[in-house]
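Re: the request from the purification team.
They wanted to know what the chain is likely to look like in 3D before they choose a buffer screen. I agreed to run a prediction and write the result into the notebook, where they can find it.
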Amino acid sequence: MQTFQQIYQRAAKRKGGEETLRKMVPDNAEELTVVWQTINVEHNCTYCVPAHTGVAKMMKVDPALTEALRNQEPMPTDKLQVLQNTTLAVVRKRGELSKDEVEAFYAAGYGQRQLLEIILGLSQKVISNYVNHIAETPIDRAFEKFAWEKK
């Protein structure tokens, strides 16, 4: 199985690959990182947390945000805290959010599309986190410096 780094490097070497990779980065890499890492940490994925730490670094996400996510500390802004709280609620309650939880999410400036994007992110992370648990996927060499264990 190819590692994330191998796929990234191969894509970057192709004609126009760097530009294609840049287009894959969302407009708000911080919010994407909050969703991914919140789920990775909640699922205790010792492969995905380091890998997404490296991805966040490539996307130029503030390292303080990445460390807060890895260590289950408060988010640096109220809006990101609401995003994290909502993501955790979707995971823990299997999508059965209360009316108050949904209203708090919308009041923070998010919409239905972003709520559905959390669910999309969760579906991706369930597959990768669970497969990595069962396969006992070793951390790629490039991400070893970001090794992680849940506190």
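For the purification team: The helical segments are 4-13, 17-24, 29-42, 48-58, 63-70, 78-92, 99-107, 112-135.
Please add any questions underneath this entry.
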